[in-house]
Design goal:
Keywords: Repressor, Stress response, Transcription, Transcription regulation. The chain is an alpha+beta fold. It is about 45% helix and about 15% strand.
């Protein structure tokens, strides 16, 4: 049995507080619910091989409900696990296996395509998880720590400018910017020269901190158009922790494929709203960066998903030297197939880390 890295600590009854009968019935209810998505009745448990009458099973299920581990939705006679119950099941009962060899080969083959950019590889990893695990695949890009080697503004026409930043580690980042009226080739060159003289060798974090006090000087040294380009360029590259990072989400349509999800459009709509809160979701995945393995959040364990009642299973991806780069995971309904999704997330994160290592 695998002990998992939990989400935030939530007070739930411990296994020691349940006798053998209660533990067995609780496990069977949760396993049946995760498989079918339907509330589980006492007769279902009785037919599953429990040597107790339906009445005795109902009494035990009632006791589990009073402990906050089971709940009865609407007027249904059946029971389903609460988020607290799912947390106890994941931490105390869940047995996690390994990823099938065929799936391992598929993950490795899709991530090993040559000529793919850094962000394309991350997007592919997110799509892989979405397809294999169901739910939406999510990945947050690393904090850029390499020093800046070169900066350039390239006119594209049609009112757009391409801001190009080349890093000392060979990575290139491009940002499309609106071209203000009156921008001339000389203003673009002037802005490029100004930034190259001051950013070369600095990380984006250092640049964001140190350049703040230099913008006033930039306005005095440059013409107004070039100064605005410098300011807009810095904002495009490093305008704060949320804006400096990319969040990639794939497979949101999977969240509508579940039969129960179709019955609860409000919950799905709330989940889509949650996914649109980019900065908060990046913050959640940044917490995963500090974890030593897979991290699981269930429902109200995060403020972000407290209303939609969704679950997040995520893991950090890192280099061979154990330098954490970012985090990748799956978001879906609370009844995700944890035994299947957890190893998929873990293996994809490890393959992605190896690929980023070159």
């Amino acid at each position: 049995m695998t002990q998992l890295f939990p989400g935030p600590i939530v007070r739930t009854p411990g296994l020691a507080e349940l006798d053998a009968r209660a533990r067995d019935i609780f496990r069977r209810v949760v396993e049946s619910y995760l498989e079918t998505g339907e509330p589980v009745g006492s007769r279902t448990i009785s037919k599953g091989g429990v040597a107790l009458s339906p009445a005795s099973i109902r009494n035990t299920m009632q006791d589990l409900a009073q402990l906050g581990l089971l709940d009865a939705p609407h007027t249904s006679a059946g029971r389903m696990p609460t988020h607290a119950g799912l947390r106890m099941f994941v931490d105390g009962f869940l047995e996690v296996g390994d990823v099938a060899e065929q799936e391992k080969r598929a993950i490795e083959a899709r991530l090993a395509v040559k000529g793919r950019s850094f962000e394309e590889a991350l997007a592919e990893a997110s799509s892989i998880l979405s397809g294999l695990a169901g739910g939406a695949g999510i990945v947050v890009t690393p904090v850029r720590e390499g020093g800046v080697k070169h900066v350039e503004f390239v006119p594209l026409g049609g009112g757009q400018v391409l801001a190009v930043m080349v890093f000392e580690d060979g990575q290139v980042e491009n940002r499309l910017m609106r071209q203000a009226p009156g921008v001339t080739p000389s203003a673009l060159q002037e802005a490029s020269n100004f930034l190259n003289a001051r950013l070369r060798g600095r990380t984006l974090t250092e640049a964001r901190t140190e350049m703040g006090g230099e913008l006033d000087a930039a306005r005095r040294q440059l013409n107004e158009t070039a100064a605005r380009l410098v300011e807009d360029g810095l904002a495009a590259w490093s305008g704060g922790e949320g804006d400096a990072r990319s969040l990639i989400v794939r497979g949101q349509a999977n969240l509508l494929a579940d039969a129960r999800a179709r019955e609860d459009i409000d919950r799905v709509r709330q989940l889509f709203d949650d996914l649109s809160r980019r900065a908060q979701l990046i913050g959640l995945l940044d917490d995963v960066r500090d974890a030593e393995g897979v991290r699981i959040y269930i429902g109200a364990e995060t403020r972000l998903f407290s209303l939609s009642g969704s679950s997040v299973i995520a893991a950090p991806y890192m280099t061979g030297r154990q330098k954490v780069l970012g985090a990748i995971g799956v978001i879906g309904p609370a009844r995700l197939n944890y035994a299947r999704v957890i190893p998929l997330v873990d293996y994809t994160a490890r393959v992605l880390g190896r690929m980023m290592d070159g």
